[in-house]
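Ticket #945: bound-state structure for zinc ion.
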Amino acid sequence: DDEVRVRQKAPEVDPLEEANFEQELKAVMQESMEQRRLELRGRPTLNMMIPMNVFEGPTKDHHGRGGESGDETLDEEAGGSKEVQVKVLVKRGNKQQTKQMLIPRDCSLVQSTKQKEAAELEE
Amino acid sequence: EETGDDESYEYGKGDFTEHACRYCGVSNPACVVRCNVPSCRKWFCNSRGNTSGSHIVNHLVRAKHKEVCLHKDSPLGETILECYNCGCRNVFLLGFISAKTESVVVLLCREPCLSVNALKDMNWDLSQWCPLIDDRCFLQWLVKIPSEQEQLRARQISAQQINKVEELWKTNPDASLEDLEKPGVDDEPQPVALKYEDAYQYQNVFAPLIKLEADYDKMMKESQSKDNVTIRWDIGLNKKRIAYFVFPKEDNELRLVPGDELRLRYSGDAAHPAWQSVGHVIKLTAQEEVALELRASQGVPVDVNHGFSVDFVWKSTSFDRMQGAMKTFAVDETSVSGYIYHHLLGHEVEVQMVRNTLPRRFGAPGLPELNASQVFAVKSVLQKPISLIQGPPGTGKTVTSAAIVYHMAKQGQGQVLVCAPSNVAVDQLAEKISATGLKVVRLCAKSREAVSSPVEHLTLHYQVRHLDTSEKSELHKLQQLKDEQGELSSSDEKKYKALKRATEREISQSADVICCTCVGAGDPRLANFRFRQVLIDESTQATEPECLIPLVLGAKQVVLVGDHCQLGPVIMCKKAARAGLAQSLFERLVLLGVKPIRLQVQYRMHPSLSEFPSNSFYEGTLQNGVTINERQSSGIDFPWPVPNRPMFFYVQMGQEEISASGTSYLNRTEAANVEKIVTTFLRSGVVPSQIGVITPYEGQRAYIVNYMSRNGALRQQLYKEIEVASVDSFQGREKDYIILSCVRSNEHQGIGFLNDPRRLNVALTRARYGIVILGNPKVLSKQPLWNSLLTHYKEHECLVEGPLNNLKQSMVQFQKPKKIYN
Ligand SMILES: [Zn+2]
Ligand SMILES: [Zn+2]
Ligand SMILES: [Zn+2]
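RESOLUTION: The complex was predicted; output attached.
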């Protein structure tokens, strides 16, 4: 019941600061790419290690924390939800795990999958 | 060992700040990530505040750090973000890809894994690689953006500050944002502001001021050693050893109060080894004698009386509690309601009303009937989350406060917390509230448990001792044993402490109202208590951080009672005072536009006495609740120049002198005339307890005490019973007759203390039946307010000179007042 309405000015970002930051960010990106290319020079191409078994039914990992509660799935079923549930594949040491998470429906990541799904359904 | 509890008490409650964003303090695990660079390991959130990138992205870019780890309580758990395929941890290269057919996503680096051919045939869709850092934020579904509420209560950090602190971290990785604000040793501290961006900025301003005051207080008190002290030994009712000795105030600034800790030392002689013990001041007698209850009763050289030394033992407790309250205010979102949080910081908040059913009657049982302005005050306060009540002298602040507390307690919102900066005020309030039939617990500092109190039966330590149930018999037994033997075996002591703590808790929890000083609200015994409703009396005499201590225990409804037209808190350190530490929260809220509800009927002063203060300090709004007849002193034959107008300004031309201490002033002529006036009062039938002599200067106070006891025309004892005090210490009190000695009388130096209009207000409003002012009109009239006071007395034919039995109107010329005064 602690609702409070604070009247405040919309945060204003100094355009100069913004330009400056954008530049620095680009520089870090650039530098990262170059550094990476240097590191990789002479190394053999890596093998793709993503296992395929995650695609086969539900995972056995029950330790994931988020997104597993009934509420959130219900949300999705309600149809109006702006989020969809996805599994995120992560590694713990050498062990693979998946964790459930909610991703906004309008995220490009999800959209492509959904489109493909739709396309496949049509076939 | 009595303060042991306090030292183990963690300020800021727990270490949930460990993973708080180092820029803004947001600590929601879903919103923060840790920079994974081993030398850094700082946490940052994913909000932008008013900068162009989110805090974590800002940090990574500015510090050129590139690896992060999620919080263990975030949806993915403690996870270092890395390419699933090659283990690359550079977040600027990472992005998610999704499977073509399933809802599975995985992190993959742009170089080289995204361009590995092997992947192309598989189930992954590489065309939709989605960078981890998008629009200068981490993907929001992975690291949440803090809610608007969370962001509003976070520290508002600017891009400039970020750059500065990142720069600072390069040389000092542990530096905090506060270090940016730290002034150099010789710098003036940052002054207080009217509004603050957030509680961190608030803390940044006040913490250094409190530190300055604490350092000054420590330096001053610890330098107050006294040698060659003569002791008179005694034993208290609790079998503890008490040392009586004289600790004259005249030559030092130090003002002892009951509860202060002193160390008594004896360097030893042929028959006695060296000895020392710490004790608490339990009493200060009118004869300037200190009663010190010693902690240890063994080995005390009670057959020696001379050659002791006394040192002050300085304690940081009150300052620590202020700092702790400010920290809690900043980091603990539940410390006060959102409304109060934003209001205290001066943010514009939409008006809120408290939804409570109002009582039919606003008075309370056991209290006098309320007048119209008091009823109005009670009614409005009950409906608002923050209110200010201004109580000019004698307007029934305490009764009004007690009525408010009574109705709050009846609303069933839990226990009400009632505080004031001084113990005297807390006691008065506790007494009145208890009269309404509410269950009151008066919590005293442990160091003050031996100090006698008018509301002893309400104190927690008394209730613990006298709780009469059979289950408590174990505690009683141990208490008895402790009283008899002085101490217990260590296992018994343990048992005793545990039982006592449990009993204290039980009693406190069953109370409707807890009363303590503002600093007392930080007592560890209240650490787990929450108070939604808090009333602070005399709040204009507390510093802001002091006021904050009772508020951060969960306040949702706050009532500040006080009078900003009377004296504010005493600040010893001039630097801190100049920076605004002497301004109370009440005053700042008034400046922010909160309108105080003023109590308008005064029941103290003879109407002739209230006229000038009402016009000069309260825009003429003060009404008289007493009539001239009710303030007519029958049978008292005192030579008032105008009958029915029991006041006069007695013109004095004697010189001021600097007192022996070199830090104060005295005026012998005025002192001699004070004695004559006192004697005349006594001869006319007034008794000593009705008279109060007040003066702004300690030097004069001491001189008058001394002069009267040596030169008083009547029995010495009569003069000893008359209270002679500083104006400041008389705030909140009253006497039937007041004699005010102004002291200052010089050609060019000005009037110092008398310049403060609030001090004049206090001085003029202490008397019920009559007032005599002694001073030099020529000097005082330069100050505009004094000029108008003198004019007021002159117009009423009360400006007089000559012998008391033949007072004549004075024709002394006033000087033109200087135009500007504050
Ligand atoms: Zn870092
Ligand atoms: Zn942040
Ligand atoms: Zn990779």
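RESOLUTION NOTES: The longest strand of chain A covers residues 83-92.
TICKET STATUS: resolved
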